[in-house]
Amino acid sequence: MNTQHIDPGNGQSPHGLAPTDDLVLAAPTLSVVIPLRDEQPTLEALFESIKQSCETSGLTFEVIFVDDGSQDGSLETMIHLARQDTRVRPIALPRNFGKAAALSTGFREARGRYVVTMDGDLQDDPAEIPHLLEVLQQGYGLVSGWKRDRKDHLSRRIASRLFNWATRRLSHVELHDFNCGLKAYTRECAQSLSEVCYGELHRYLPVLANYRGYRVTESEVNHRERTNGRSRYGLERYFRGFLDLLTATFLSRYARRPMHVFGGIGLALFLPGSVTLGWLVVDKVAFGATIGNRPALVLGAVLALAGLQLMVAGLVAELITGPRSSTVPHTVIVAMPDESPDAADRSPVVVSHPSTPRWGARPGHGQDPR
């Protein structure tokens, strides 16, 4: 996917400015990633709220606006803000790719030690950022906001509760609000999730983070009334969300052992199909029965062939995933004893260094998170 980094200078580009290499600046403590589409009226107020919250808390920060194909002048407003404050980093996607793609792009571009995501419609309260970071620093990889007092229509609240209940049951991640846009991540967690944040899987980032070995929790956050525009998500997103939930569940439980799901279903079909065919063969050979017009013949053949195909698919999937499955999340712990005279009465200092070439790790957690 092509992205354009907008230079707040005077060069020329399709948007009036020239894409340039990233400026070499000191990395901030916090990166705020805001995926947006057609949110022009709220951007200036949103940035001022973020700035006030971070400056009051003494946080160095950057705000990464990811424009996902806006048509209302949002990009121009982002550029205007970047010209006024170098802590604003506008990124423009060439067309509308969806929220997951915008988040993934922002995760990859974030330079802060911590990453906070929020929506651009002012319903997420930037004043919650310091509290989310306090919780995150207790050893978590992801802290999800929980909109307990949600300012939405009753139908959306009911659908959201059903959606969150189903997600909890299938994923075994005990959160109340998986789809809250206000979340805090460590940089390592965010960049690890950028690999799997596609389609509409942004709803299940806590599930995927938990699978990758990061500790996940939630914290209540303030949710505000929408002051501009309307939600672009209708009830149909919950039907699509159910399919994405199946995808997230499969990635979480079976990405490293696909034969367990394909082979399990295949075996459940193959065995009764084989038994049915075997019984028909015995009936034909031993008793001379006519089996060519019997429905059991078709049923047994279909079950046996479908089961065999699924088991073969599982073997092929194992061949594809096998080489990377040997790399598991782990943390290398180096215990450095204190050599001071009273060392015998003191515990050793433990230095934890995460060694996570692909999957990410939970500090102090060295086993496969399945």
The oligomerization state is: single chain
CATH topology of the largest domain: Spore Coat Polysaccharide Biosynthesis Protein SpsA, Chain A
Order the strands across the largest sheet as they lie in space.
1-4-3-2-5-7-6-8
Radius of gyration equals: 26 Å
Termini separation (Å)?
31 Å
Order of helices and strands: EEHEHEHEHEHEHHEHHHEE
Q: Helix amount, in percent?
A: 40-55%
- Which structural class fits the helix and strand makeup? alpha/beta
Q: Would you identify the regions where 5 or more consecutive residues have pLDDT less than 50?
A: 9-24, 348-370
What would the average pLDDT be, to the nearest integer? 82
How would you describe what is shown here?
The protein is α/β, with parallel strands linked by helices. It is 42% helix and 14% strand. The chain has 10 helices and 10 strands. The strands form 2 sheets. The protein has an 8-stranded mixed sheet, with helices on both faces. β2, α1 (43-56) and β3 (61-67) form a beta-alpha-beta unit. It has 3 domains: 4-254, Spore Coat Polysaccharide Biosynthesis Protein SpsA, Chain A (Alpha-Beta Complex), CATH 3.90.550.10; 258-325; 329-370, no CATH class.
